[in-house]
Specification:
Order of helices and strands: EHEEHHEHEH
Helix content: 25-40%
Strand content: 25-35%
Radius of gyration: 15 Å
Low-confidence stretches: none
Shape: globular
Structural class: alpha+beta
Mean pLDDT: 78
Distance between the termini: 27 Å
Largest sheet: 3 strands, antiparallel
Length: 120
């Protein structure tokens, strides 16, 4: 298969009673890697941050947007889409490598994408 269009830089979980909406303003995201990555951005590159607001806190995933022509065009199409169009296109493959049997069973093997606008 092809390499991911937006490879994952890292994932953070924040446990809090009040999940944060503007999570990118915190320097400690992914152990400071997010801030370092943003400072290194040049030209047609960037970082996609997905912030899941959960009852127990935040689940934050950070992804690098490559300078590859096809990926950049895909990113621009996504950015300029309506909320409804983005909700239909953003997909996530979940995979639990290690964890309780029940969690692995619920999440599944990670082969089928979940369209976040329909699932969440």
């Amino acid at each position: 298969s092809l390499p991911p269009a937006f490879p994952c830089l890292g994932v953070d979980v924040w446990l809090t009673d009040e999940p944060q909406r503007k999570i990118a303003r915190y320097d400690c995201i992914i152990g400071g890697l997010l801030k370092k990555t943003i400072k290194q951005q040049t030209g047609r590159s960037g970082v996609l941050i997905i912030n899941f607001l959960l009852p127990f806190g935040n689940l934050v995933t950070c992804h690098k947007i490559s300078e590859d022509e096809a990926n950049w065009a895909l990113w621009q199409t996504f950015l300029h889409a309506t909320d409804e169009e983005r909700n239909e296109r953003l997909k996530m493959l979940s995979l639990v490598v290690e964890g309780p049997w029940m969690v692995r069973k619920v999440v599944g093997p990670g082969y089928a994408p979940a369209v976040l606008g329909r699932v969440m």
